[in-house]
Structure formats: C-alpha cells, structure tokens
C-alpha cells in the first residue's frame, strides 16, 4: 500500500546578502502564489546552515538572514499562512542530514556539478560541508515529507539526488516512508538574466551593479538601470519565436511578463513593433510599481530586528511540530534505541 503524504511545498534561499530581482521573480513571487493558492502547506526557509559551507562573517550572516526574512515577508509571505524559518533553529534538518550522509553514495555526490563549479581548482581545500551540501538539502526537503519543491534549473540535479536518497532509504529499510518529491519549474522568469549580458544569470556577485536590480534599490535607481539595460537595435517581435537569438530582448520581455502575470506571447501581442525606447519606460514603470512597496517594507522590518527574530522563533516551533515526529520515526526505522 502506497503511503499518503500531505501536499506540502518546501523551498529555501541562502542568506548570502544582496537580494536581487532574480530572487524575487525566480523564487519569492512564486512562493507567494503557492502560499495563496492554498492547495499545499508551504514551508519557506533561510538556509543558514548551507551558507556556512563557505566562510561567513558572523555579523554579516546574521544581518543577511534577517534581511532575507524581511524580503520574504515584504514580498507577501504571511508567517501565519506559511511556516517561515531559519534552518539552524530546527535541529532536525541537521540530524536527518547525518542519516542521509550514510545513505547517499560518494559517487552520487561526486557527480554534483555545483560542487565542481564552487570548489573549482581548489577542490582539496573545499569544506566537507560544501561536498555534502546536497545531502543536507535532501534532509531539508524530506524532514517535512515535502511533496513538491519549486526549484530553478540550476537546482534540478540536487532535487534528483533527493529523490534518489528517498528511494534508496525506502528500499534499504523496506518502507514507504519518504515521498519521491516532485520539482515545480514554471513561470516566465524562473531564470532572470543580467541586464548587461543576457547570456548570464543575474547575480549579486557580478562586479557591475548595473547588471542587476537589487531589492533595496530606490525607484530612481530601478528606472535608471532598466533604461540603461543592454538591448539590440531591432523592434520587438509580435510573437515569441522572434526572440530567438536575442538574449537581452528575451530577458526584458520575460521580466515584464513575470511582473504583469502575462505570458510572453500576450506581452508581445501588445508591444510587438515597438522600439526599446518605447518599451523600456513601460517596463520601468511596472517594475517600480511592483518593487517599491517591497523595498519600503523591507526597510521598515530591518529597523525592527526583534520583530523578525520573534517571527522566526514562532516559525521554528511550528516547524518542529512536523519535523520532530518524522525524525523520531526515521530513527526507529534505522534502529536507533530510545528514539
């Protein structure tokens, strides 16, 4: 008999500072939509344990965690509707990760392309935590028996590993205990690209601040960056196939579509034939209208760190009502005495 799992969404973002438009359109906006749909329980996490797989200044990490929490709330995550936590306050994440370290195989982790990218030529000096990061990510998801995870394309491999770990655990112990979690990859702007180079993902680590829109940018700065965004000399097409080979044009249309909750085809039906000199002001006005209330609320919350900490503490209590029984059952399945 197949186990029945509560429909539950889990996703997390690293508190590494400097939230960008990519974080908002690629993740937070979708998180809010899932929360408000009401079809799944929703758990959203600041994955601070993942952040320390590389060196972090303690004060900077604490501020970045609160800033990320402020970004979640300002974007529309309601701590009463969703469970909002920082990972380190829910110890079952790390406890299940150890079990999964013993289930996952070295060969599986060796194939993770993100480790190769982040460790680079300095592989021997990378932390064990950076190598084992995907097993902790699997624990983050499965400690809630999450059935669905919204992920970007760059995290698909890690979610496939989560599914492999769940399947191996279930098979090793002859149980149907962990769900085989489904990825949710959708939306016009799941991958927001640089405003200076449409072939690169928008990133807070890019040396050029003009390449990204920061969630804390002023309205004038947002409008200026969009006006200066790289484009091409051609008019906008009337249908999506006309964007092929036009990375910068495609990026700006995707951003507009995501802000407006429209399909790319619907946007192009409206703006096809326009030059960028006409389209950019439309996009700037829309971006300012959507982002300025978020940046204002983030600034308010960051002036109230005690309020943020209290929200996270309440979230941890609610989270542990789910995670503690799942860890207890896991230990019992494995054979831990006194679990």
Tell me what you see in this structure:
The protein has 339 residues and is mostly helical. The chain has 13 helices and five strands. It has helices at 21-37, 48-51, 58-75, 92-101, 106-110, 113-119, 128-142, 156-173, 219-227, 247-260, 264-271, 276-302, 305-334, and strands at residues 8-13, 41-46, 83-86, 148-150, 182-184. The chain is globular and about 70 Å long. The model has no long low-confidence stretch (mean pLDDT 92).
Category from helices, strands and their pairing: mainly alpha
Q: Work out the strand percent.
A: 5-15%
| Major sheet description | 3 strands, parallel
| Discrete helix count | 13
- Mean pLDDT equals 92
Number of strands: 5
Summarize the entry for a quick read.
The protein has 339 residues and is mostly helical.
Keywords:
5 strands; mainly alpha; 339 residues
Per-chain topology:
Layout: E1 8-13, H1 21-37, E2 41-46, H2 48-51, H3 58-75, E3 83-86, H4 92-101, H5 106-110, H6 113-119, H7 128-142, E4 148-150, H8 156-173, E5 182-184, H9 219-227, H10 247-260, H11 264-271, H12 276-302, H13 305-334
Parallel strand pairs: 1-2, 2-3, 4-5
Helix pairs in contact: 3-12, 4-7, 4-13, 7-8, 9-12, 10-11, 10-12
